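Quick log. Single chain, no ligands specified.
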Amino acid sequence: MKKNPAGNHYQHTLTKMWNYKWIYLMLLPVMVYYIVFKYIPMYGVVIAFKDYNVFKGVFGSPWCGLEVFEKILRNKNFWEAIKNTLLLNILTLVVSFPFTILVSLMLNEIISPKFKKVTQSILYLPHFISWVVVAGIATNLFSQQGGTVNQILNSMGLPSVPFLSHNAWWIFTYVICNVWKEIGWGTIIYLAALTGVDESLYEAAYLDGATKLQRLIYITLPSIKSVIVTMLILQISKMMTIGLDAPLLLGNKKVIGVSEVISTYTYRLGIESAKYSDSTAIGLFQSVINIIILFAADRFAKAIGEDGII
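-> predicted structure:
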């Protein structure tokens, strides 16, 4: 009697799944979350190609082809939002990316385990603070009238600085708040990578007379180079994306020329003006551009000899 390889393989797979049933059970809520909130709503993308009417619904609204995209691409406010999004993301990346690596290297050099844990916890904490709270803190610190920073400057005989009402100073405040909030969380992956560096390399370099800086340049950084490149690709792939909360809560009418990003522009179109087709089209455009940037960054990484992520 011949054996059935396909049947044996199927039985073996079922046995393995049963052995790891509790792991699959823990995975189930994550799968349900992505199916319900990520995959099922994808059908709503068709609104971008329809003259959507909230009373007729998605199925009843007539198709309009690419008319919505043509309309938003002719809108100067849309391109202004793209410019502001790219500007804020690039400036945040330029400041936060190297600073995160630097902080990770500094944490890795801490000898005392207790002090290291306390320091890491303090740095991680801002990540879990809501942007509503962060915006309130920023307002109390940087407000031109009664802000803590300006009170200190006034006590020193210096004029008040319009951190939240001047375009350039608002961008500075936005970047500082973002870096403060996320820098600790960004060190987690780098610290994990640093723990995998072979200690024998440091010992050999020390015996050869290498200074701490030389060990950092010739051992530590090359050892985590692949992680740095991967994180950089992931950061670059989000160049067209900014969360709604930060620019909306920190921004105001005086600085709307730099605080109006794609997310806030989409919010005003979709929620305030009820232009659902326009806001959906902008969201789809944003996602497509992000994917293109991701592939371009990955190709560039591979071109310079790195593995990339795709």
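The mean pLDDT is 87.
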